[in-house]
What does this fold into?
Amino acid sequence: MRKDTMEKENQHLVELTDFYNELKKSDLIDNTSPAVQFILAIRDNFSTEYVSESISVAGYSAEDIMSGKIEFKSLIPEMSLMRLRQRFAEAMIAREDTYSLETQIRFASGAIHPYQNRYRIIKDEYGSPLFLLGISVRNAEPL
It folds into this structure.
């Protein structure tokens, strides 16, 4: 990789790290909020880089999810996960940076809750996806 390309990618990662640190310090979403913020690393098969503590409303700890003990995508029922992957692929083909999608989250109790999600794809300078930033807000009662 050329030196200038590496420097640009490093700068992009520094900017993303700054955003990530600000997001973690944010008090916009507290532990009792029905909204969940998250950052998924696309290159690492959508591994969880960050999830807000408000995931505790669903009966999970953010620490367990970020450590990989519980995979964030395991909280999403298979049909919702398929729609999520399809919509991500469509967004990439259409060169969209943001999109919305309704999915579901399986709470630790086993109840399935509908969530409205807003996603932002963070790409490198070549348009390759790096991270998926998201916020999920619970819609209503369990299905």
Remarks:
- The chain has a mean pLDDT of 83.
- The beta strands are 35-41, 47-51, 98-106, 112-123, 129-138.
- The chain has one domain: 3-138.
- The longest helix spans residues 3-25.
